[in-house]
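hi!! sorry for the late reply, been swamped w classes. u asked for the two structures so here they r. pasted raw, havent cleaned anything up. first the sequence of the first protein and right below it the tokens
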Amino acid sequence: MKRLFLLLFLLNFCIGFSQTSISQKDLSSSALELTNQKVVYDPTYFSIDYPNGDIPSNKGVCTDVIIRAYRSLGIDLQKEVHEDMKDNFSAYPKIWGLKTTDKNIDHRRVPNLMTFFKRKGAEIPISMNPSDYVPGDIISWNLGGAITHIGIVTDKKSSDGKRNLIVHNIGKGQVLEDCLFDFKIIGHYRYKN
């Protein structure tokens, strides 16, 4: 009986561990898939369905890369961010002068995603060591002034093999680039829901 219990415990542990690893790899793969879609950078405000709303599939900004990658894995950041903001509005940035939540745009703002990931315990240390950034990690940057940006670390490597490449949209659509340390990193997250 003890052996059976031990075997079941080990099996459960191994399955749980492998699902965590697959989650990060799946997010990386999902982000890479996005680079096959033709998307024009478009920061326009859209009224969208809720939950699972999305702007037109041929449009987007950096946050839409994150939202679409998670959504393809069954995680609706629109709903999750909206519900957390509704319950904890004072914990979120007041940059836009809003008095209440807006399910059409809140999840499409980098500072809101950063706050959400931090509130959910997904924040991990920022470093200048490229090996600290693993496939599926979310990175946010300050591009200068108050301009923020966000992307997903993939399992593809830079030409020198030292850094993982990033899927992001900084104006050229959803692309894969070697840009991990091109800007000041201000957030590093590993969100698994």
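now the second protein. again sequence first, tokens right under
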Amino acid sequence: MNKLFVALPIAALMAAPALGQTQWVELQDNVQVSQFGSTVDQIEDWDLYDAGGQKIGEIEAVLGSDGALASALVVDFDNAASFVDGDVIVPIDQFTWEANRLSLNIDQAGAQQLELWND
């Protein structure tokens, strides 16, 4: 009985990293992204701005855990923005679409913690 109580927590710890990983799928151009009222094709290459209104990058791709629902955007940060070197996966709830402008709701430190996209 004691072995069972020890084995269960160890098994849960071993499974934890696999649970946190998402298998990303790049959405097709015609998929509607309800958060922005636009298709994937329209969103790709949108400029991205920080809270101060400075352009910090652009959208490279729209991702989801399946091919039908957007849950993240891939951002290519400008070199001058000092965010991240490379394409980064940012959860879709970290963006604001207002006055025909897409803004990022996290700072450089937050962006450094995000997953890189290797397409």
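hope this helps!! also noticed smth abt the second:
The beta strands are 25-26, 32-33, 38-39, 47-49, 55-64, 72-77, 87-91, 95-98, 101-104.
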